[in-house]
Amino acid sequence: MLREALPTWDDVLHAEVSMIERAIHSAGLSRQKSQRIHDVLQWVSGRFGGLTLRPLEELADDDVIELLTTQKGIGVKTAAVVLAFSLDRDICPVDTHVHRISKRLGWVAEKTDAVETFHTLRPQIPVGKAASFHLNLLKFGRNICTSRNPHCEDCPLWDDCTWAGKKPQ
Question: Would you name the residues annotated as active-site residues?
Fold first, then answer.
């Protein structure tokens, strides 16, 4: 694991990419991800004068998303994760679970991509509820509304589900 091999971000920044790759090998796509991690840390260090995200605290959410997504390997989901969990902003990242559940409940069309789902859900989430909304959907998606073999028989949202593949209760 990365933190065991390289305990600080400074260690990661100054490590050879091959060392980062070995440390994250179990996560999959380690060659691609290791280079991107290294590149992003170099960018952060150069842009902000060190390994800090403090300058982002002064920016509006949309400006942070726009700035971060200029970097290869950082998409809207990752930028939203940074906002929500590093900057404590009231924003809901749309990961695979949030996206799947949004489609199954008919909040977005089946062919909607995750970025469009993010922009569709964002104004619908009550103020102060984005983090709990994200974390609850994450848990729900891991435990009940799973990608394969969902537990429809245990689903409290079964009546609201519009998914063609839902099983009878």
Answer: 77
Q: Which two tokens stand for residue 91?
A: 């924003």
Instruction: Report which secondary-structure segment, H or E, holds 33.
Output: helix 30-48
pLDDT tens readout for residues 72-129: 999 999 999 999 999 999 999 999 999 999 999 999 999 999 999 999 999 999 999 9
Return d(Cα 148, Cα 98) in angstroms, integer: 15
CA–CA separation, 43 vs 81, rounded Å? 18
Please enumerate in sequence order all residues whose Cβ is within 8 A of that of 33, keeping only pairs 6 or more positions apart, or say none: 24, 27, 73
pLDDT in tens, 27-77: 888 889 999 999 999 999 999 999 999 999 999 999 999 999 999 999 999
- Please give the model's pTM, rounded to 2 decimal places: 0.91
Asked whether residue 18 is assigned to any structural domain, the reply reads yes
Task: Look at residue 35 and tell me if it is in a domain.
Answer: yes
Q: Any idea which residue has 């290791």 for tokens?
A: 34
Count of the separate structural domains present in the chain: 1
30 within domain boundaries: yes
Provide the residue range defining the domain that includes 31: 1-52
Name every residue whose Cβ is closer than 8 Å to that of residue 32 and which is 6 or more positions away in sequence. 73
